[in-house]
Fold:
Amino acid sequence: MATLSRRTFVAGVATTAACLTASADHSARTLRVVGSRGFVGFSGLASSHLIQNLEIAETLVRADDSGQLLPALASHFHVDSDYMTWRFKLREQAIFHDGSAVTPQAIVQELERIRLRPAAALSRVPIASIRAEGDSIVIALTRPFALLPAYLAAGSSIILSPGSYGSNGALGAIFGSGPYRLASIKDANNLEMRAVDDPSDHAIRTVHYMAVNDAETRARMLEAGNAHLIYNLSPAARERLRRNPAIRVVSTAGPRIRYVMVNTSDPRLADINVRRALSLAMDRINAARILLRSPNVAASQMMPPILPDWTLPGGQMLMHDEEQANSLLEKAGWKREKGGVRQKDGKRLSFTLNTYSMRPELPSLAEALQAQWKKVGVEVRISLVTPDRILSDSRSGALELALIARSYFVVPDLVGTLSEDFDSASPARGWGAVGWSSSEVNDALRRYENSTDESVRETSRKVILRIIHEELPILPHSWFESVLAHSAALTNVSNNPFETSFSISRMRWAS
Amino acid sequence: MNAVIIALLLWLARLGAVVTIIVSLCFLMVELLPGDVAFQIAAARHDIERVTPAVRNDVYRELGLDRSAMVRLAEWGWTVAQGDLGRSNVSGEAVAAPLSAALFRTLQLVAIAWPTSVLLGLLFGFLLSGSTRRLAIAKLLGALSSGAPAYVIGLTLVSLFAIQWRLLPAAGYGGLIYLVLPSATLAVRSAARIALIVATSLSSAGGHPSVSFARMKGLGELEVTLKHVFPLAAPPIVAFAFVGLASQLTGVVIIEQVFAYPGLGKLLVDSVVARDVPMIQAIAILLAVLIVSCNTLAESSARFLSLSSGR
Structure:
């Protein structure tokens, strides 16, 4: 009998297994998606963002990949001339997954429920009343507020059927109206979905969503062929997967920003020359290239180029220039001897930089900043804290500097979050500016909030961006790249920088 | 009969003491972890960048975190005494359902890993006993496997069997095929340790006067091994096998992370990150019961075997 070499045996078994796996995939055609966050539970809107991304439930209005607001459950909407009364006409023949019709009354009931929850974006909208009127939902406001459609497009504003709630009013099931219905929740980390309509040949019929919190494990699952699509890659895994011919990597820098919070009520940081010097001493490009492995994410200004409306003309606006940083610090009276720490009136130019490790790249970026600032005579002590400490120190005024990451897409109009962070009258302030106020920015944010007129909004955007750029209440560091990777078996995969949808309904099997 | 009653009483007494100490320590440790509990829970519910002061304060009010830690611990103890393990701070749902599902999955892993490790341990231990050189190899293997972190073994298996050869899934939970790599990782570690104990026990039993005497009487080697060596070597081996079971139940914490396997270990880590105290406490109780039972089994089986082998 001929002997079977070990290599032949392994190759044989591997081929057989690969064939079995491939044929199983082909016949069942279940798309296996792996993300970082699981289904947290039925209470308090916790998983609404995931339910929205998986296209199980819809919102009245949705944001597309460029942040443009488009009709969803509402086929169209308009506001009366006083900007106080909004009308949303319901899309015809919309059906919830429990078989009940989507009625204006059902939506009113759901919106009333949502806006009472502090975690809901809608809780911050000045709503006077919500009522059903014919085939429309009418929302009356207590003051003009043009951002309402964007707030209705937020993940927390998803509309579920009345049948999703038990007799005690608690959510017990998820019946949305999106292209996929939730077939089963095996556990918090495993959801199965099926297409509601019988889709075309290459469309995705069944989906298994799995939550895996370790980025490296997600990457290994794609490499091993256990997943077709994975979200949130680590920089190291991205480099490795890019070299794999069977895998495609898609990166988009969206409106999530890493920046240094600066307490401008600290007398040293109140001086604009010191803030400018700190910003000029930051070598963003090298930090992005070496630590984030992507030079394109170095913040040349506050917002990334994917949002043309939110970028100022002029390209690279946040420069790296140590010489100028040194001369600004000299000008501000901070003198330096023999390359040491700068001093003024016997006080050292020394700060504590708080950051946290929940975003794993932040501590190493903080160390790079520490080294860069040391070059211009600014001493920084890094303190790893929990994020809540930054929030509470910011509100109490005890904060000096903090390196954080902040999303500006929770409401898919940036002003929703910008006004929380930069309007000095905002009760939600905590992230963003500390101790800083600008009446011009406050006015511009309000004008933007109050008007649907594009020219008014355009002017407001420019004012907000220009003043933040000039006065540096925060020092932008880098944009956050959302990176997904998928198997070559899948086409039409898009990466939504507002993280409102995985757009699985648009994906197709390659063959 | 007496031995069974003593073992049972011993088990109950130890269990009561261990559970009380463990849950109090767990509660205290979570209280002492840095950071605001309400914020961490809110972050687990909504993602950290969605947590505003209003969201955090809502969680704080909802969970009554303004009450003192002692009051909350006492309240929790009272609910547990009534047979209710409480509700998760994060999902708001009863912890019993996710807990039993996770327990089932972990037991699935251990149900494969433990017998495998015992069989492999016996086999290799037997092969490696007999000569001092083979015993040295057994010691080396034992040391290497105890020293190698579980994730190193796990990742090596993944890169070979999942990524290189695509024979098995890299992570997750589904059919039986998903159990292979995590249970193999669990088994490899304890198999090497069991092999070491088997090899040393057999070697030392082989040198026992009663064995030499049996040989002198002219008994065949097989008979000597079965009738004299095995009974002498059995007590430490059986005891260690049960200790190995206990260490597998704790070893799942790391291994379930590596394989994103939704068992007790992963649930425990996720709950600690989220500061989900009721869930952490319930898992602690469960693990304490399991581990104390394993240790009691180890002790009583060793005692029973020692008695019956006349030592």
About this structure: The domain at 254-480 of chain A is CATH 3.10.105.10 (Dipeptide-binding Protein; domain 3).
